[in-house]
Write a structure and sequence with these properties.
The structure holds two protein chains of two kinds. Chain A is 84% helix and 0% strand. Chain A is mainly α. By secondary structure, chain B is α+β, with helices and mostly antiparallel strands. Classes of the chains: A mainly alpha, B alpha+beta. At the A-B interface, helix 1, helix 2, helix 3, helix 4 and helix 5 of A face helix 3, helix 4, helix 5 and helix 6 of B.
Amino acid sequence: MRRATLRSGLREFFRLPRFSRKQLPRLALGALGLFGIGVGIFGLPTQLEVSQLIGLAGWLAASLVLHDGILVPLSHLFGFGLRRLSYGLQPESAAVVRTALLIGAVLTLVGLPLLKAQQVAKNVSVLQDDYLLSLVLFWAGLVLAAAVTVLLLERRSRRARRDRAIQSEMGQSATDSGNP
Amino acid sequence: MTRFLQARMEGVATRLHSPVRSTRLTVVLGRLLGPAFLICFGTGLFSHYLQDPGDITFFLTRPVWIYQVTQGIHITVGIASIPLLFAKLWSVFPELLKWPPIKNVWHGLERASIALFVSASLVELTIGLINTYKWYPWPFPFRQTHYWLAWVIVGSLALHIAVKLPIIAEHWRKRREPDGASRPAGRWPRRGFLAAVGLSSFTLVLTTAGQSFGWLAPFNLFAPRRMGTGPQAVPVNRTAAEAKVLALANDPGWALQVTFRGRSAAYSLAELGAMPLSEHQLPIACVEGWSQYANWRGVPIRDLIATVGAPADSLLRITSLEPNGGYRIMTMPAAYTQDAQTMVALQLNGEVLDLDHGYPARIIAPGRPGVLQTKWLKSVEVLG
C-alpha cells in the first residue's frame, strides 16, 4: 500500500505536461529562450575565471536573499505601519503618502551607492555633486509636496462632507415643512 | 514537519496578503518591463559589437549622435526598469510562499528558471547602475559579465513568456472589476500602485538623465555626471595622472608615428598643427551613459594616413602613450577612417587639448563609444 503511494507520488513528480500542435509557437519561444540562457551560461566561463564565476554565483544568490528575504518583508512591515498611520485618512490621501514614500525609497536606494562610490571616485568630474545634500533636499521636497497634497485633499473632503450634511439637513427641513 | 511548514507558510502568506496584487497587475507590469529589457538588450548589443566587432564590418558613423542616443537610452531605460522590476517581483511574491515549493519536475525546473531570471535581472541592474558611478565592488569583470548575463536574462524572458503565455493572454486585456469591490482602509487601488511605480520611474529618470540629455540638466540631482563641467567644459573619465602618461605626454620631443607598408613618418605637434585642419561639433559619449557635445579641431585621419600613401578606407591600429590599460590599443575600422569628421584632435572648444583630454593629440570619431576615442596618441599603423 505504502509502496503504491510512493510509486504514484514519484509518477506524479516526474510527469511532464503534454503539448498539442497548437502550442508549437509556444514551444518554439521556449526553445529560443533556452538557447539564449545557454548562450549566456556557456559564454560566461569563456571570459571569467573560476574564482570570478564563484563570485558571480555569490552575487546572484545574495541578490535573491537580499530581495526576497529582506527587501520585500521590510516593505510589508512598512506597509503595515503605514496602514495604521494613515487610518482615518481619505483613500486618496493614503495613496499620496504611499506614493511619496515609494518614490523616496527608490531614489534613496539608487542615491545611497553614490555616496559610497564618491569615496572611491578618482577624478573631479565624476561624482562631483553633494549627493547627501541632494538626497536630503529631495526628501524635504517630497515630504512638503505630499503634506500639502494630503492637507488639500483632506480639506476638500471635509468641505464636501459638510456640504452634504448641510444639504441633507436642508432637504430634511424641506421635507419637514412639506409634511407637517 | 511538512504540515507544520505548510501551516507556517500559509500563515505568512495570509499576513502578507494585499488586495493590490493580482495576475492582471503582474501582466501589466510585465508588459512594461519586457519591452524595457528588450530595449536594453538591443542597445547593449549595439554597444558591445561597436567595442568587440568580431567579424562584423558594418558600422554607423551617421548620425554622429547615434551612440550618444543608443547608450543614453540604454542607461535611462535600465534605470527606469529598477522600480518596474521591484514592482513586478512584489506582485508575484506570494508564489514563493506556496507549499510544497516544488510540485513536480516540471514545476521545479520552472521555479529554477525563475530564480535564475530574477537573480540575473537584479544583479544586472545593480552592476549596471553602480558601473555608471565608476565603482566596482564585485569580484568579476563588469563588461563581460553584463554582456553574458544579458543573454541569460533575455533567454529567461522568452522562456518565461512561453511558460506563462496562457495566463498572459487571459489577463492581457482589461476586465471589468466586479461591482462592489471595496478597498480596505489605508490601502491603495491597483491603479494608484501602478501610478506610484510609474512616478518612481519617472522621477528616477528625471533626476539622472540630465547627464545624457541636456534639456534635463536642471533636474540632474543624482547622476554621476554633469554636462559642461571638467577641463574645457567636457567631463573626463580617465585623467592623465591615472593613465600614468604625464611625463610622456608633456615630452617636447613627442611625435606621432604613422606607418604603412614599411613607410613611416613622424609628425611633431607643430607639424600636425601646420596641416590643413578641420573643425566639427561632435559628441563624446560614454558607455556609462553621459555625453557631451564639443567643438573639436584637428587633422582628418584620412588626410594623415594619405601622407604615407595609405588609402582612406584603411583599417588602423592606434596606440596610446599609456603604459597599460584595456584600451591602450584600439582598432579603427575603415568606416571611421574614411569619414571626413574622424580626426586626430589637437584642440577642444577653441583651446589646445587639456592634458586630461588627451594632449598632445587624441582621436575623435563620429558615433563611437568614448572608450575608443583614444587619448595621448603614440602611433597610427595602417593595417590594410
